[in-house]
Specification:
With 192 residues, this protein is an alpha/beta fold. Helices cover 42% and strands 17% of the residues.
Length: 192
């Protein structure tokens, strides 16, 4: 009997300004195939109140694609999105997944608190395009991967690479990357 572990991608498009292009990109057969290739088992979508009709249409199309990725969704959760984002964390029955979010500052902070790789996708239709600047800065500091609706699969691949980099010890950005042996040798006084 196979005991495959869950791996969840959680997508949030925002509560106040729904991001239809992000919903379309995430629930597309090509992105679901990219998720399946990375062993994801579920895409959970927070689509906002205005996104229900679009979500319903896209889910029926996605189910016929046969990728094996289960697509679930909901409009809003008045208690917040934290518990939904935490579903992407690793546990006894789940591999660590990813959070994909519009680039709103509050949402990004919530996603980063989970400790899982986070893909932020700026919504260019918003006034003054303020999400772009925030996403650029956070990506430059390697806190998140900045995605685009035109290439969510590419952002997913980058998030998987980010996962590997953040699991290295010592962290790559800690100065000289000596590895564990080098650090222990230095601490013990075994210098060349």
């Amino acid at each position: 009997m196979s005991t495959s572990r869950q791996k969840i991608a959680f997508l949030t498009t925002g509560a106040t300004a729904t991001f239809p292009a992000l919903i379309e990109a995430a629930v597309s057969p090509s992105f679901l195939e990219a998720l399946a290739a990375q062993r994801y088992t579920e895409l959970a979508v927070q689509h906002g109140a205005d996104g229900q009709q679009l979500y319903d249409k896209l889910v029926s199309r996605a189910e016929s694609a046969g990728t094996g990725v289960k697509v679930t969704g909901f409009a809003l959760d008045k208690t917040g999105l934290g518990r939904h984002m935490r579903r992407a964390q690793s546990s006894n029955n789940a591999e660590e997944g990813v959070v994909i979010a519009h680039a709103g500052s509050g949402t990004i902070l919530d996603a980063m608190r989970t400790g899982v790789p986070t893909i932020v996708v700026p919504n260019p239709s918003l006034l003054e395009d303020h999400q772009q600047e925030l996403a650029d800065e956070l990506e430059a500091r390697e806190y998140v991967v900045k995605g685009r609706v035109e290439d969510l699969a590419g952002a997913l691949a980058m998030a998987e690479k980010m996962r590997q980099r953040t699991r290295e010890w010592p962290p790559v950005n800690s100065g000289t990357h000596k590895g564990l042996k080098g650090i222990l040798d230095e601490e013990m006084g075994y210098l060349d």
